[in-house]
Specification:
Blueprint lengths: L20 E8 L6 H15 L3 E9 L5 H11 L3 E6 L4 H11 L4 E4 L8 H12 L4 E13 L5 E10 L2
Parallel strand pairs: 1-2, 1-4, 2-3
Antiparallel strand pairs: 4-6, 5-6
Helix pairs in contact: 1-2
Length: 163
Amino acid sequence: MSEPILFPRERRSPRGPRWRLVGVVVPVYNEQHVLERSVRGLRDFLKTGLSYDFVITIADNAGTDRTWDIARRLADALAPVRAVHLDRKGRGRALRHIWSASVADVVAYMDVDLSTDLNGSLSLVKPLLANSLSGRGWRAERTRPAAPSGRSSRAATTCCCAP
């Protein structure tokens, strides 16, 4: 079975006893070639671009390569990175498992290749912290083929607010 997810119930921050927390999940399956670079890049970006506390959780979806070893090493070396191993594959399964145990005020996920513009993801956080139920962004650089109407559609990325 999967390892327990450890999130502090009583959050402490230099900003005060109960500052807002943003949880970002990075679901991975056999991503040893890109995991370390992506997680370090995401962490550095959030440290400089986000004015809230955050936690990054790497969710290893039953991979068969060295992804889990790398994820554990990153969790040991980098705060606030966590690593969780799941015995079965599935992005939805990983997100449900981690989000259901999260105490974050806002939860989101990023593909390990960071294909979503990180600057755009920050603009999703503010409305969610202002009590919106969801936020939505698009990958403008990647479009799907034109729809029958002749208009092209964009692939969406969604963040959800934790209750």
